[in-house]
């Protein structure tokens, strides 16, 4: 969970990486379109990378760089670069190798590692390419990293962003022109429609095209083409495990924006036959580069530790009942139970309210709250209200709790619990949920020092080591061996090789 104002944003990092705004470009483009309709008739051109005709005239190449630079600043403000200069330099060198010979020499390619645990990678117009440390943890060789960077390069050389943007604008233009004669809000609504189309995930055809171009670029850089299907297979395994463990990416990670389907694995495997078998893999060099990298949530995002959520930087923790699944999402922390109960925790600015009662009734519920009760949570002023609602189409009682967390010149902030208690819940469950909402407390310095992030560690397998024995060194309570196998690209029954290096997760 991100701190301060970022905590209220509902998108996971995988989604926000795709949620670019091109407001400046939109404003400049519409008049030109209205005046010069010939753009629609003559805007198609042959892309030198794909050899295909495409319509991308509404974001010409000379504008891509300025759009990318503008959005790049927003990306870094939102997600931050991972603070590891040596690793950043390593990724940039791999990126340089896969982009040194593309059909778009006009593009200056730039590579960044983002401080995110979610498996993700994406590209902005103008050559900006990003990978998360979550993706780096999943890859098992330099060649697999090269495959990802080359795939994203393929989206740039194929001009998929410009193509989607131009097609989206075409769809909305007619409505925009008509609405402009009536009122400006109509134009805004029409342009929003085009922008929403622009934000959609890549089509299957575009993904396949980027895969094919990626194979071209990674092999030109000297890498083994087999790394492309091998990484896609790792993505399949990681996606399945994410679904099994109710993963934190909220269905909006690289697995959904770049689906690792069996068809893609088969297609890229077939295409590797076109390329030389002499490419490098550089597995050991890659593992050395990521040794010690943070795995999972960073201190700025807080940690899930058993049934507790702990945020040492902000100095608080709370506990959820046994049997609840606790997930740290980008904007909130969510705990759910098999019985249908749910706890949602976040923090929010006070919106001008100075105490929990007025915040709950006038800001959070906007005057719709019923009776508001003043309470205290571990010495902090708080307020609560309850109303009838539904959770997953089942009747439930919803309890809202606002706890005054901080009061400064910037205004008051409130910690918030939303607790859904399904109809017919047992008295024991109701009591457990009450204890959870009252468990929020501040941490002292000694407690903060106890909680540290997990890290990727590289170990050498001995002759007696197995996946089970190495996985027992990890801090996970569930599916530790499965996590180990997914991280290392191992099949369900695949044995370790004595003397080989493997990734494990440790404190």
Describe the structure.
The chain has 507 residues and is an alpha+beta fold. It has three domains: 14-294, no CATH class; 303-442, Mog1/PsbP, alpha/beta/alpha sandwich (Protein Transport Mog1p, Chain A, 3-Layer(aba) Sandwich); 454-506, Roll (Membrane-bound Lytic Murein Transglycosylase D, Chain A), CATH 3.10.350. The protein has 19 helices and 19 strands. A seven-stranded antiparallel beta sheet has the order 10-11-12-16-15-14-13. Strands 7-8-9-17 form a four-stranded antiparallel beta sheet. Strands 3-5-4 form a three-stranded mixed beta sheet. Helix 5 (85-99) crosses helix 7 (142-157), helix 7 (142-157) crosses helix 10 and helix 8 runs antiparallel to helix 9.
* Rg, alpha carbons: 25 Å
Sheet-strand content, in percent, reads: 15-25%
pLDDT average, as an integer?
A: 81
N-to-C CA distance: 20 Å
Give the helix/strand class.
alpha+beta
